[in-house]
Fold each of these.
Amino acid sequence: MECSIGIVTREECHKTTYGAVNKQLTLVSELGEEKQTVLKLRLGECDLRSICKHHEIKYSVKYNHLFGNICCDPLKVHKRTIKKGLREISLEHLKKEKNFPVALVPGKSLCPNCYTKIFVLKETVSGGSSGSGRSEFAPMQENVAELEAVCSALDISPVAKIMKMNTGKRPAALSKKCRRISDSLRRKLASSFSDDSMGLDSDEQIPSFALSEEYDLLINKLKEKCLISNKEEKIKIISLLPTSWSRQKISQEFQVSEHLVRITRALQKTQGILPDLGKRRGHPVRDETIQAVTEFYENNENSRICPGKKDCVSVNVGGIKEHMQKRLILCNLMELYIHFKNTQPEHKIGFSKFCALRPKWCIIAGASGTHTVCVCSYHQNVKLMVEGATLNSDYKDLLRVMVCDIESYKCMSNECADCPGEEILTELLSAESESMPDQIVYKQWVNTDRANMISVMQTYSEFCESLIEKLTELKKHHYVAKIQSQYLKETRESLDETQCLVLADFAENYSFLVQDEIQSFHWVNQQATLHPFVYYYKADNITKCRSLCIISDHVKHDTATVYVFQKYLIADIKENVPSVRKVIYFSDGAGSQYKNKKNLSNLCHHYEDFGLQAEWNFFATSHGKNACDGIGGTTKRQATKASLQRTHFNQIMCPLELYKFCTENISGIVYFFVPTEEVARNEIILKSRFQKCKTVPHTREKHRVVPLEENTVRCYKTSKSDDFEDIVVVDNS
């Protein structure tokens, strides 16, 4: 059964285009009065008695979607289809324009131009006066013809070009045309009546209606600009508006909040028009927090100084460029930030600000100069195994599984009977076997006649056995490395005025080079020994440090050499910090230089030789990088740069010339020169002492040594350990 609309339009009824419908017809008289009116206007004068659900939805709900996607062009002025900026015609619009001569259909759409002419500028469409004898609606062609006649009579260009302009350019062109017509008409009137008062020489004689049009045009342009502007630009625009306008009027006209108008008015009182909003200052980071973050980045636990002579960056300090030795951050910034928040929760700072405060010389892995060497093989081999197998845990997590407390020496040295041990780790790794490949390939550092990295392929079970074995070996080493680093930090922070903390380490020997050297000079292997010292002391309740560097032509690095260098160190300490009564040494565990029976014997005689008490602490194997590396790198970098610049004279060719150059050109480091003859003389003096030395059992396990008498030392396994062992190191019999 077809409805009335289906019969008139010859469209199929009861379609399911807009959803499921029943096939019953509804009487149009049963619909609401407003809906009946809309249907009659949309379908014309046809007999509407019944309607199906499909046509009811189509011609009442979906009408604008189907028929209102273009301008209906009631004025017949468009040469092309207009689809942008459309506004729907509603019943309210038709009620306002009951006498409009062109039929408007509710649900169809009008472009902005047609909408303005029909509903806003009524005089444009209804044109002409009531006494003209013409219809209230004057066709646009007749209006244009009249305007063309006026322009021709006044010798002004025609208005036809304006009709072809887009709506954006048309208002300005119309205003300009109006001014020309007005000026031409006034000139003709003035010339006809010989009245000079109607001339255009004075700005005061510009017609008020022309100024009004320009004012309206300016306001409209400001409105358009305000709609697409940000907050700062909106404030500048609002500041240009008349002060007589209320906040409500500005808010309505320019579609801004009254709060923004209030802000603008407040800024105008201090800055005038076009005020600057300025940046809003949030919660600034405290100076104490900034200082704490900087120190945290430079902490030896979080970064280590790079020893290379090229490992430096240029920074501006107080308007002066200085070279700072690079420090390599030992983890990524997010891990470092989390560690900072856990260790120093009293400082409030976000991650982005934490990253922004990173000193320029604290670099992350991957940056230039981050190729690191002398890395601990114990740690590195375990890391390579974990990375090769792509395990979800790092080596620290695996260590925590094996022990009760990762902070306990007994647990980490296999002396605790309650630790889970290898069994629980074996179970944990076995549980992941299903998700792991049958063969695991990973890299390892091995030492045969020389160090080399090899590839290892093992089954998963073999890999687990090897990993557990290496983790068992790593436990004690990892604990010692961490504890020694903590003790160094705590000692530096808790120094009193009678103590001095000394860091000692041999730098890599400096090889001399000459710009434009001949070929045979390349094979002359003349070098200089560099031994930096950095000592910390307390003065005026402030921890200060002083950097020294011993330069020598004696290239043998042994205990006797260290002893001679100590003489210069102690003399400098006594001269600059006379209150010091005890020296706390910290160095790596190099067996030929520091960690041997000869040096322990010298330690027993330290008070006798130098008049100061002393103790010696050792870093864990391969964990001895400290501030001394930066002194050696700075010295070699500056010397290398100068050598390459000196092509014809003042070349640096020997250790003594290197010492003279450093003393004259490098600030912040105190240099001493020790000739090989002086070392030789002291070797003779120390020979008898060294002959009485006794071997200290398990020397490698000792990390703190305190002299008790001239022949006895007290040895600790770590610097923070309470357990000790007294050992006789000198045989006086």
Amino acid sequence: MVCGLCNCWYRIWLAWDDSLIDVDVLSSGSQFIHARITFRALHNPVIITIIYGANEVAARRDLWGTLEALALNCVDSPWMVGGDFDAVRDLSEVCGTSGDIRMAMEEFNSCIQNSGLLPLPMQGEWFTWHNYSASPCNLWKRLDRILTNDIWMLRYPTLSYTCLTPRTSDHSPLIWQHEIVGIPMYAVTRKLKALKPIFRELRREKGNLSHNVQLAKGFLDMVQNLRAKMQWMKEGDQCTRVFFRKIAHRRAVKRVLQINDGYGVTQTNPDADEASPLIKSFTAEDVKLAMFDIVEDKARGPDGYSSGFFKTAWTVMGDEVTRAVLNFFAKGKLLKQVNCTLLAVIPKVHSPITVADFHPISCCNVIYKVIAKLLVQYLSVVLGKLVSPCQAAFIPGRSIGDNIMMAQELFTGYNQKRLPPRCALKVDICKAYDTVE
């Protein structure tokens, strides 16, 4: 819900979303509102002073004195001061005839210095105000700005703001941004970490979201099943040919072709056709296809996010995730926040005693899974020539049942007495995933 307030002179209006932010007004005047802002997800209060300076120099002197007094109470807190000061700090912030403003500049700069304020990094337009005069006396000034104290700078070193082009007002809007400096993969991991307290607060306020989602999905499945049955009863006989064509296409797409030669000879160097897909660069479409190929209900990794979260929010964060993955292949640097895995053990028997009684399951982060899928996609072209023919499982074109059928063939009639003396050895035979090396 959006809330708001204004000072008693109706010159300054402050609006916020009370589901995200708590606002406590500490003091106010005709030219300022001084408030404590608390982000509910972070629980770290900050002090913010919104400014709308008077047009007269004498009236602004009262504002400068007020700011210096407020600074004494913000020595130990992060403090931000922003808005329309109606004053400039340097002649470079004025374009056009503006009279003698040197005294006003000195008073403004003295107030900033005495208050211990520093300018926040700015992007965008340099001038924030224009008189929009049709006469030759056009005037541009930089009247709007954001200042912070040193504690704010230390706590939020990457914050900046953007000065946009004026629209309906003669002043430029100032947009507060939180920039994360670092390689794309680091930026993604930091933003995902910052989302966690917001999700925890949302879960606390809205109750059992997972249960509500399951109820909604169940209702949706029921409606879709009813619609599908009605459509089948109406069009089933007419669409038989279409369904058979889809089945044939699915079988053709799912078919795995043999990549190793028929003689079992290991090739040391791939030929030109095999080398071509190994050296080409990945594209954004490759990253998206790998992400959407991951099953949504797979176990989450250490970061706590599933592939379903990334798929749902792909329009928002898809570009950043893509840059992070492509940056890894370009630079070869994988952060430890991504390259970490949770090892979960699932008991195979009711009363496990030894380690062999558990199934080990590796829970990896989604970005790590995307990178692994892309690597497998390229290596699958030559994987059959790199792995020994004795390895029958987990290789396209081979089957785990091949060795079982081969052993059964060898032992057929093995106990016949007319054959010469012989023996068989069972060496380290175990099921897949019984051990982790």
Amino acid sequence: MSLLGYVVVFFLFCCSYALNLTALFLPKWLTRIIPKPSYSETNYGLFKLCSSLTGECRPFPGPSDCTQEERFCQLW
């Protein structure tokens, strides 16, 4: 493999690594928007859940999420 091939593979690896780290730390894997009667936006990330109603983020899944559905936390 030529030097150009190694440079391209290294560049692709660095981009992939940066995107993976970004996806881990940003809580926007899934967004639920409720437009009416009052606007509400909830963002689910890999480790936290953020709500526009409270303006706070909390760990996800939490203990209350684990009791509602069998094995949800184990699979998460």
